[in-house]
């Protein structure tokens, strides 16, 4: 796998997705900037990239896991105390709070904590106390997408790590795999993201896997044709022969490639999760149009995905809310 990945890296584009000025300039009062570590830890992004390369070369599925970590971390945005991309997801339980790792959307879903721990240890050895765990998540998510053939983009950095975690906020804020279109749209609007952001970020499901328990409700869904029915029957056979923990690829066609096949699948009725196929609901309107556009134009999907990831990465607590650069991502500093 390493040889194949090294060869693939030589073929990767060297230019990032370009952004308009309003996308680049932070507008939420946060202190996020491109090249934040240029002087305090010049090797930061190279260290993170090397760690992601090692992890993905050993297990390609880890790319989707690292992307999911960033997404699930950023969506915990319940109040002024627990907001946004602050690496709260990485905190272990303490006698002060129950962490987010065991929240319903995360248990048996999020993984890759050891990968982040390893990268953070290398960063601490090179630049003690400089690089936040929240920034590691953001940069690692970008690098994971790139390694499976997806776009790259500049990541704004300078986040602080949160001092608390909130299990109940994770359970109420992170979109459920059984969500319908209106619920999905509202979850994204609750954190300041648009319906278009919801559609393009859902395209992350072009990689990764899900447990049967998360999509078993699809088995009884009405089908739009024989192809759709065969797809649902194959899923039911897979899950019927195993347990709720049996895994299926979110994109059965190109499961280890970050591309626009996810949207092609939706047009055929072959979205794995109920929340995926919900984008093609009868009343989807503009959402259905976006799905068709991304299915037809991978470059448009890549461009919009990079821009949406930057916007999601800006979900953060208001200035002055506090935070730190953790020495270990699992615990706050003593």
UniProtKB/TrEMBL annotation:
<keyword id="KW-0479">Metal-binding</keyword>
<feature type="disulfide bond">
    <location>
        <begin position="133"/>
        <end position="329"/>
    </location>
</feature>
<dbReference type="GO" id="GO:0046872">
    <property type="term" value="F:metal ion binding"/>
</dbReference>
<feature type="binding site">
    <location>
        <position position="254"/>
    </location>
    <ligand>
        <name>Ca(2+) 2</name>
    </ligand>
</feature>
<dbReference type="GO" id="GO:0005576">
    <property type="term" value="C:extracellular region"/>
</dbReference>
<keyword id="KW-0732">Signal</keyword>
<feature type="binding site">
    <location>
        <position position="84"/>
    </location>
    <ligand>
        <name>Ca(2+) 1</name>
    </ligand>
</feature>
<dbReference type="GO" id="GO:0042744">
    <property type="term" value="P:hydrogen peroxide catabolic process"/>
</dbReference>
<feature type="disulfide bond">
    <location>
        <begin position="41"/>
        <end position="127"/>
    </location>
</feature>
<feature type="binding site">
    <location>
        <position position="206"/>
    </location>
    <ligand>
        <name>Ca(2+) 2</name>
    </ligand>
</feature>
<dbReference type="InterPro" id="IPR002016">
    <property type="entry name" value="Haem_peroxidase"/>
</dbReference>
<keyword id="KW-0560">Oxidoreductase</keyword>
<feature type="binding site">
    <location>
        <position position="88"/>
    </location>
    <ligand>
        <name>Ca(2+) 1</name>
    </ligand>
</feature>
<feature type="active site" description="Proton acceptor">
    <location>
        <position position="72"/>
    </location>
</feature>
<keyword id="KW-1015">Disulfide bond</keyword>
<feature type="binding site">
    <location>
        <position position="100"/>
    </location>
    <ligand>
        <name>Ca(2+) 1</name>
    </ligand>
</feature>
<dbReference type="InterPro" id="IPR033905">
    <property type="entry name" value="Secretory_peroxidase"/>
</dbReference>
<comment type="similarity">
    <text>Belongs to the peroxidase family. Classical plant (class III) peroxidase subfamily.</text>
</comment>
<feature type="binding site">
    <location>
        <position position="73"/>
    </location>
    <ligand>
        <name>Ca(2+) 1</name>
    </ligand>
</feature>
<feature type="binding site">
    <location>
        <position position="175"/>
    </location>
    <ligand>
        <name>substrate</name>
    </ligand>
</feature>
<feature type="domain" description="Plant heme peroxidase family profile">
    <location>
        <begin position="31"/>
        <end position="333"/>
    </location>
</feature>
<feature type="binding site">
    <location>
        <position position="251"/>
    </location>
    <ligand>
        <name>Ca(2+) 2</name>
    </ligand>
</feature>
<comment type="function">
    <text>Removal of H(2)O(2), oxidation of toxic reductants, biosynthesis and degradation of lignin, suberization, auxin catabolism, response to environmental stresses such as wounding, pathogen attack and oxidative stress.</text>
</comment>
<feature type="signal peptide">
    <location>
        <begin position="1"/>
        <end position="18"/>
    </location>
</feature>
<dbReference type="Pfam" id="PF00141">
    <property type="entry name" value="peroxidase"/>
</dbReference>
<dbReference type="InterPro" id="IPR000823">
    <property type="entry name" value="Peroxidase_pln"/>
</dbReference>
<dbReference type="InterPro" id="IPR019793">
    <property type="entry name" value="Peroxidases_heam-ligand_BS"/>
</dbReference>
<keyword id="KW-0873">Pyrrolidone carboxylic acid</keyword>
<dbReference type="InterPro" id="IPR010255">
    <property type="entry name" value="Haem_peroxidase_sf"/>
</dbReference>
<protein>
    <recommendedName>
        <fullName>Peroxidase</fullName>
        <ecNumber>1.11.1.7</ecNumber>
    </recommendedName>
</protein>
<feature type="binding site" description="axial binding residue">
    <location>
        <position position="205"/>
    </location>
    <ligand>
        <name>heme b</name>
    </ligand>
</feature>
<keyword id="KW-0408">Iron</keyword>
<dbReference type="InterPro" id="IPR019794">
    <property type="entry name" value="Peroxidases_AS"/>
</dbReference>
<feature type="disulfide bond">
    <location>
        <begin position="212"/>
        <end position="239"/>
    </location>
</feature>
<feature type="site" description="Transition state stabilizer">
    <location>
        <position position="68"/>
    </location>
</feature>
<keyword id="KW-0349">Heme</keyword>
<feature type="disulfide bond">
    <location>
        <begin position="74"/>
        <end position="85"/>
    </location>
</feature>
<dbReference type="GO" id="GO:0140825">
    <property type="term" value="F:lactoperoxidase activity"/>
</dbReference>
<keyword id="KW-0325">Glycoprotein</keyword>
<keyword id="KW-0376">Hydrogen peroxide</keyword>
<keyword id="KW-0106">Calcium</keyword>
<dbReference type="GO" id="GO:0020037">
    <property type="term" value="F:heme binding"/>
</dbReference>
């Amino acid at each position: 796998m390493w040889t194949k990945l090294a060869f693939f890296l030589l073929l990767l584009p060297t230019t990032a997705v370009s952004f308009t000025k309003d996308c680049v300039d932070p507008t939420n009062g946060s202190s996020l900037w491109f090249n934040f570590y240029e002087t305090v830890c010049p090797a930061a992004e190279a260290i993170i990239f090397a760690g992601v390369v090692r992890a993905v070369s050993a297990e390609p599925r880890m790319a989707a896991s690292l992307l999911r970590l960033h997404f699930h971390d950023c969506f915990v945005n319940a109040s002024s105390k627990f907001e946004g991309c602050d690496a709260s997801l990485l905190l272990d339980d303490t006698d002060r709070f129950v962490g987010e790792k065991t929240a319903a959307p995360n248990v048996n879903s999020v993984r890759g904590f050891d990968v982040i721990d390893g990268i953070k240890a290398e960063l601490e050895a090179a630049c003690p106390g400089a690089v936040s765990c929240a920034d590691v998540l953001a940069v690692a998510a970008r690098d994971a997408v790139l390694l499976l053939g997806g776009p790259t983009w500049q990541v704004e950095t300078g986040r602080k790590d949160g001092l608390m975690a909130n299990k109940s906020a994770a359970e109420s804020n992170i979109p459920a795999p059984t969500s319908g279109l209106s619920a999905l749209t509202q979850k994204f609007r609750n954190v300041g993201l648009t319906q278009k952001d919801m559609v393009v970020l859902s395209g992350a499901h072009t990689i990764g896997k899900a447990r049967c328990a998360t999509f078993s409700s699809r088995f009884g869904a009405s089908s739009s044709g024989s192809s759709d029915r065969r797809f649902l029957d194959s899923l039911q056979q897979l899950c019927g022969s195993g347990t709720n923990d049996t895994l299926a690829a979110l994109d059965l066609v190109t499961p280890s490639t970050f591309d626009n096949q996810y949207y092609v699948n939706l047009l055929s009725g072959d979205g794995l999760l109920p929340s995926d196929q919900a984008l093609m609901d009868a009343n989807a309107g503009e959402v259905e149009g976006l799905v068709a556009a991304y299915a037809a134009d991978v470059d448009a999907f890549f461009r919009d995905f990079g821009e949406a990831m930057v916007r999601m990465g800006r979900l953060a607590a208001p200035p002055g809310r506090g935070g730190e650069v953790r020495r270990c991502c699992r615990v706050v500093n003593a």
